[in-house]
């Protein structure tokens, strides 16, 4: 049925054919001709691009179907042809200076605003364009006119820089997760603390607090590390200082209990 529509002229017939091939894949995903059906969807989208003149929307839609083919049918005889189509579309998107969009989050899934996003030419190291993530962590950027491969660099103080070097940033919005430097140092400190190396642990917790002063785990770890080497007064100072600076923190009750425990140890 899909082929009968595909061989007829007109956009409506192509849409009907595409719908028929999609339904075939949905109902018969393991059928020997499922790969052929997906290939015909790609062919239809490529025809539409040629008929109407390539647009970013059409090119990204075709690229998404190509990626779907490579994921579902990696052993198909069509793979070389599909890969060539993929390269052609990516090159076309570069020539059209298609925009790249995405969402930047921290490890807890919270959006990060104000991240500097830069497009770097991987051959010349030239900065092609820059932008910043918005208050909800979203960004959109145009790579510029270079035909060389490029990478995306994400930077913000207090977070580890991240480089995206994937060859297809176009087909769907990117999801970028930036690791907090405070979390990194706290994890390092936890490692040393678990091995009773309290001095090394203190150094890591102090670095974490430098990046994020209200970080509960780092402040607690620093207090426990001081206790580990018998420096009870310094441990008390850590907890009291935190309580005074952040009286509404959910850790206040727990830190007051820590203080009571240390006072008992002192006596």
Outline the biggest β-sheet: 4 strands, antiparallel
Form type? elongated
Query: What is the string of helix and strand elements?
Result: HHHHHEEEEEEEHHHHH
| pLDDT < 50 stretches | 1-7
| Measured distance between first and last alpha carbons | 87 Å
- Rg estimate, integer Å: 27 Å
Question: So how many helices?
Answer: 10
Percent of residues in beta strands?
Answer: 5-15%
User: Which range best describes the helical content: under 10%, 10-25%, 25-40%, 40-55%, 55-70% or over 70%?
Assistant: 40-55%
Structural class: alpha+beta
Strand neighbour order, sheet with most strands: 3-2-5-6
> Would you report the number of β strands?
7
Q: State mean pLDDT (0 to 100 scale).
A: 86
Task: Record keyword descriptors for this entry.
single chain; 267 residues; alpha+beta; three-stranded mixed beta sheet; 7 strands; elongated
């Amino acid at each position: 049925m899909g082929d009968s529509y595909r061989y007829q002229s007109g956009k409506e017939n192509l849409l009907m054919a595409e719908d028929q091939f999609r339904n075939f894949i949905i109902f018969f995903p393991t059928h020997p001709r499922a790969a052929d059906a997906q290939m015909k969807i790609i062919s239809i989208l490529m025809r539409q691009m040629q008929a109407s003149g390539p647009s970013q929307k059409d090119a990204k839609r075709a690229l998404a179907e190509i990626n779907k083919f490579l994921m579902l049918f990696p052993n198909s005889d069509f793979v070389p042809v599909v890969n060539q189509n993929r390269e052609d579309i990516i090159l076309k998107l570069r020539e059209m200076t298609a925009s790249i969009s995405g969402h930047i989050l921290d490890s807890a899934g919270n959006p990060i605003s104000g991240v500097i996003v830069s497009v770097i030419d991987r051959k010349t190291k030239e900065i092609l364009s820059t932008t910043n993530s918005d208050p909800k962590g979203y960004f959109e950027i145009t790579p510029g006119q270079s035909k060389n491969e490029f990478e995306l660099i994400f930077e913000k103080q207090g977070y580890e820089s991240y480089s995206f070097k994937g060859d297809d940033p176009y087909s769907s919005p990117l999801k970028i997760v930036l690791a907090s430097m405070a979390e990194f140092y706290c994890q390092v400190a936890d490692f040393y603390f678990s091995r009773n190396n309290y001095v090394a642990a203190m150094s890591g917790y102090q670095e974490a607090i430098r990046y994020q002063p209200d970080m509960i785990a780092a402040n607690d770890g620093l207090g426990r590390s001081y206790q580990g080497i018998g420096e009870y007064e310094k441990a008390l100072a850590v907890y009291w200082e935190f309580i005074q600076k952040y009286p509404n923190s959910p850790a206040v009750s727990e830190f007051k209990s820590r203080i009571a425990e240390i006072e008992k140890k002192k006596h």
